[in-house]
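Hi all, posting the design record for the shared folder.

TITLE: backbone redesign
STEP: 1 of 1
STRUCTURE INPUT:
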């Protein structure tokens, strides 16, 4: 009597489970970014600017950027002294980006191919800006953000291209 190989004997058998976990992690990451941007956007539209500046400092600290850093201080000053029309623009822009991340995250969690392509393209489009920011002033938060975004874009592009090749062979 011949027994079939166990899943652990076949490394390919573990690949779908790992792939699913990565896709779920990417989708959740995009939804967390959605929540942060929604809070920032709504805050910029409704909260007193000083409170917004404090919130930005807390989020920046949480993301690994030092709130005492020159760029963060300048951002805080811009928010504190921004005219209400500028705060409206910032709020609308943040909510707009949040909607993009919401579409990406929910589409990825629903295993939609178009969402993987959209996420890969949008994520990759920001990589040159992140590299520029690192070149201007290096910090750990920026390097981590760049590494995560490069990994996400590379993984999704690779996943989509492998799936396309597999369909072409069939």
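Okay, here is what came back for every position:
SEQUENCE:
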């Amino acid at each position: 009597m011949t027994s079939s190989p166990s899943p652990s004997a076949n490394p390919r058998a573990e690949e779908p489970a790992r792939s699913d976990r990565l896709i779920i992690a990417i989708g959740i990451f995009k939804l967390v970014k959605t929540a942060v941007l929604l809070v920032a956007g709504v805050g910029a539209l409704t909260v007193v600017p000083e409170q917004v500046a404090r919130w930005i400092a807390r989020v920046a600290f949480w993301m690994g950027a030092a709130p005492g850093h020159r760029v963060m201080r300048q951002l805080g000053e811009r928010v504190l002294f921004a005219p209400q029309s500028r705060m409206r623009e910032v709020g609308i822009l943040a909510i707009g980006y949040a909607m993009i991340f919401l579409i990406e995250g929910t589409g990825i969690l629903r295993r939609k191919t178009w969402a993987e392509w959209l996420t890969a393209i949008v994520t990759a489009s920001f990589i040159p800006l992140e590299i520029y920011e690192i070149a201007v002033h290096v910090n750990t938060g920026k390097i981590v953000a760049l590494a995560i975004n490069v990994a996400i874009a590379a993984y999704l592009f690779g996943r989509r291209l492998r799936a396309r090749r597999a369909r072409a062979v069939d």
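COMMENT: The CA atoms of residues 103 and 115 lie 8 Å apart.
Let me know if anyone wants the other runs.
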